[in-house]
């Protein structure tokens, strides 16, 4: 074992007691892999790193050195930029590469073409946003979206999905389908989520008082805990599973009512009974009339109707057969709240997602059941 490998593994063991897929304790892999992560220092990358270390793998990060430089100091870092400065990757060998930070096909092409001679397996983290339509349930063979302006490299709400679909093509073209794993996650949630979308619900319950619960308790939701996605990703590298996988919870498993109930229970357990959280269920028609937006004002929730009828019904049997295991809702909510309550005060009070408190009060006051 090389010295750096020993340091990475022993630091992981010293952290100890961590849990991986679906909350199970992690046992070391039979054969340690050398894994390059393009990215690695934010949200999903942090969980992949922790899980890979727990499994005894040896990691290298490639990034610009701008994000979370204090996390995992024991990991080797190669500094560069996917936008053309990838020379630091030349002349090195790894067993697999995880592309966690590819948003523009040119960047993926550059890294995949450079690495294909020296790294046999490419895993690209894509997204369910690749699909052209959410009017009905998608599986992996559903059509993907197309760019209105084919040459664009601007990543925004309209181009993100189609650009990711082209990134998938770039990885497959360079590596061949037999050496490429494409993961298409739905909303990734859990501790360290820098978007605050799922976090909004346990955080809002913990603030206490009356709060808006959107639509109906039975409204379906889908997501994936970052720790379960991390475990699935590393597992596909260990078993050399290739192909394209929707990576999200089974349709119908999670609901808005379940998320609200779990958030209230976690809040009561963590912050005590003072100003107890009280969800007020408001119908989607009333919320629309009040211009309360699904997803942005009411994170995670999109009513299953019209163009979004299939949004929370994505099929994921292929990933389930390949070993994807998603932990219980209560675990995700409890751990997300625990992480949130340990954040700096400013991050706790100003969330990046969810309806503003003043506006929420106005909407609740306007509701006359
Ligand atoms: N969040 C979700 O709900 C969701 C859902 C579906 C799919 N996804 C996908 O999940 C993946 C991971 O997302 P994430 O939010 O965890 O991480 P991310 O923000 O996509 O990536 C951050 C990492 O990439 C590095 N990085 C960023 N730009 C770089 C560049 N130009 N050159 C080199 N390194 C660069 C960052 O380090 P430096 O800043 O130091 O360079 C950091 O380590 C993404 O591919 C995303 O599309 C996310």
Got a strand count? Answer: 13
Total domains: 2
Low-confidence stretches: 10-19
Rg for CA atoms = 21 Å
Gap between N and C termini, in Å? 67 Å
The main β sheet shows up as: 7 strands, parallel
Structural class: alpha/beta
CATH hierarchy: architecture of the largest domain:
3-Layer(aba) Sandwich
Which ligands occur here?
Answer: NADP nicotinamide-adenine-dinucleotide phosphate
How much beta, percentage-wise?
Answer: 5-15%
Q: Helix and strand succession?
A: HEHEEEHEHEEHEEEHEEHEHHHHH
Spatial order of strands in the largest sheet: 3-2-1-4-5-6-11
Characterization of the model:
With 369 residues, this protein is α/β, with parallel strands linked by helices. The chain has two domains: 3-190 and 223-247, Rossmann fold (3-Layer(aba) Sandwich); 200-221 and 255-309 and 330-366. Helices cover 35% and strands 15% of the residues. The chain is built from twelve helices and 13 strands. The protein has helices at 3-15, 43-54, 105-115, 160-175, 200-207, 226-238, 256-271, 284-289, 317-322, 329-341, 345-349, 357-366; strands at residues 34-38, 58-63, 76-79, 96-99, 122-125, 180-185, 188-189, 209-214, 220-221, 224-225, 243-247, 254-255, 277-282. Strands 3-2-1-4-5-6-11 form a seven-stranded parallel beta sheet, sandwiched between helices. Strand 4, helix 3 (105-115) and strand 5 form a beta-alpha-beta unit. Mean pLDDT is 94; it is low at 10-19. NADP nicotinamide-adenine-dinucleotide phosphate binds next to helix 2.
């Amino acid at each position: 074992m090389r010295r750096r490998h020993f340091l990475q593994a022993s630091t992981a063991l010293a952290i100890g007691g961590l849990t991986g897929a679906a909350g199970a304790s992690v046992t070391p892999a039979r054969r340690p892999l050398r894994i390059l992560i393009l990215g690695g220092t934010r949200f999903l990358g942090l969980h992949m790193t922790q899980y890979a270390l727990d499994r005894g793998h040896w990691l290298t990060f490639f990034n610009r050195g701008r994000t979370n430089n204090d996390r995992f100091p024991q990991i080797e870092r190669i500094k560069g930029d996917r936008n053309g400065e990838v020379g630091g990757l030349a002349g090195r060998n790894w067993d697999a590469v995880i592309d966690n930070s590819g948003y523009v096909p040119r960047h993926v092409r550059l890294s995949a073409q450079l690495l294909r001679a020296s790294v046999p397996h490419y895993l690209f983290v894509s997204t369910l946003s690749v699909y052209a339509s959410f009017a009905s349930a998608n599986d992996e063979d559903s059509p993907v979206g197309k760019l209105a302006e084919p040459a664009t490299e601007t990543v925004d709400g309209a181009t993100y999905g189609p650009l990711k679909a082209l990134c998938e093509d770039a990885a497959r073209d360079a590596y061949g389908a037999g050496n490429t794993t494409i993961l298409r996650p739905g909303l990734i949630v859990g501790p360290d989520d820098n978007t605050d979308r799922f976090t909004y619900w346990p955080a809002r319950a913990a603030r206490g008082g009356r709060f808006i619960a959107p639509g109906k308790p039975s409204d379906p939701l889908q997501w994936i805990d970052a720790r379960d996605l991390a475990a699935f990703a590393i597992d596909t590298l260990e078993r050399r599973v290739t192909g394209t996988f929707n990576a999200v919870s089974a349709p119908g498993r999670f609901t808005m009512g379940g998320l609200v109930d779990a958030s209230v229970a976690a809040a009561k357990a963590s912050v005590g009974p003072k100003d107890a959280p009280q969800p007020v269920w408001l119908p989607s028609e009333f919320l629309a009339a009040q211009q309360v937006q699904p997803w942005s004002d009411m994170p995670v929730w999109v009513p299953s109707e019209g163009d979004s009828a299939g949004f929370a019904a994505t099929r994921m049997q292929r990933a389930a057969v390949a070993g994807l295991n998603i932990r219980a809702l209560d675990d995700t909510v409890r751990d997300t709240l625990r992480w949130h309550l340990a954040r700096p005060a400013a991050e706790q009070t100003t969330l990046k997602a969810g309806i503003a408190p003043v506006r929420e009060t106005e909407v609740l006051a306007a509701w006359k059941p």
